[in-house]
From TrEMBL:
Belongs to the alanine racemase family. It catalyses: L-alanine = D-alanine. CDD domains: PLPDE_III_AR. GO terms for cellular component: cytosol. The modification N6-(pyridoxal phosphate)lysine is found at K35. Pathway: Amino-acid biosynthesis; D-alanine biosynthesis; D-alanine from L-alanine: step 1/1. Substrate binds at R130, M292. InterPro entries: Ala_racemase, Ala_racemase/Decarboxylase_C, Ala_racemase_C, Ala_racemase_N, Ala_racemase_pyridoxalP-BS, PLP-binding_barrel. The lineage of its organism: Bacteria, Pseudomonadati, Pseudomonadota, Alphaproteobacteria, Rhodobacterales. One of its GO terms (biological process) is D-alanine biosynthetic process. It comes from the Bacteria. This is Alanine racemase. It holds the Pfam family Ala_racemase_N. Catalyzes the interconversion of L-alanine and D-alanine. May also act on other amino acids.
Amino acid sequence: MATATLSIDLDAIAANWRALDRLSDPSTQTGAVVKADAYGLGSKRVARALAEAGARRFFVAVAEEGAAVRQALGPGPQINVLGGHMPGDTEMIQDLDLTPMLNSVDQITRHLESLPGHPFGIQLDTGMNRLGLEAPEWEAVAPLVLEQGPELVMSHLACADEPDHPMNAAQLAEFHAMTDGIGVPRSLAATGGILLGPDYHFELTRPGVGLYGGRPFVASHPVVGLSLPIIQVREVEAGEIVGYSCGYIADQPRLIATIAAGYADGLTRRYSNAATLWDGETPVPIVGRVSMDLITADISHLQQIPRALDILGPMQGVDDLADVAGTIGYEVLTSLGHRYARRYVSAATRGQM
Ligand SMILES: *Cc1c(COP(=O)(O)O)cnc(C)c1O
């Protein structure tokens, strides 16, 4: 039995990075967010492809992720840790030359005491209320912190995927109020912020999802394909059931294909009787419940039994699938399981694992 295959187009990721880079002024640097194993696609391969495209500043969520990226990239590129400097991370931050984005007075103290002179950045809270120093805290520590020469001062937008949301302008104003005149490179924009225009770009942008073909960067090149092999095909009579809980009852004789992937592979049960698979350009409905390792689909209308059906590909992207499940492309990507054979596609290394 062939295994389900996740194909990841590294050239498309590089093209998306260049396209996002072109959306800001040449004086603005474009970073790359590769947290959560590059949104589930493999941070080592992805980081290398992005470095080749020209990215020099990478962002991960936690120090362990930074270790994998450093291993892939070698010395040189800056690897920023969004979670900052956590207790127990000091050695890794030092040994692997990671740059923590300090987000509290506690973290600033920890960093300056344990690794004096080691590069760091600062994260400010401009209204999202998730991570970072708030204005009064920043005001209190800014003179001391700025003396130490931070690499970057950054904040994050809560509603950048909604261009008309008043939060965007409010956070922009707060960021200016907190940072104007500090003489340190600044960063406010992720993918959504880049699309809001030059006011939001500052010295560095930090795209993530747009690199991987997700909204709100609708002009992105598709990056992932997911092809699921058919294990078995059977005829069911009218009135027969398919799968757990009699999730589907045939209204007429049907040809049912059983497919080798399920919710343990990140294909949520919400796709039960709802999502579509594709045989080339022909839609094939999922019928019955998605189970842990198997999905059933009605292929009665196909002329030939294909070897596999696609759930992600040219006919259906991560956001289309996310819409079916009532979630976002980010979650579809980061849910993709570990059982898939991963095929990285690029002009240089076509087909390598
Ligand atoms: C995840 C994240 C990003 C990237 O966001 P996208 O919407 O995926 O572009 C940038 N900055 C911070 C702080 C993040 O947490």
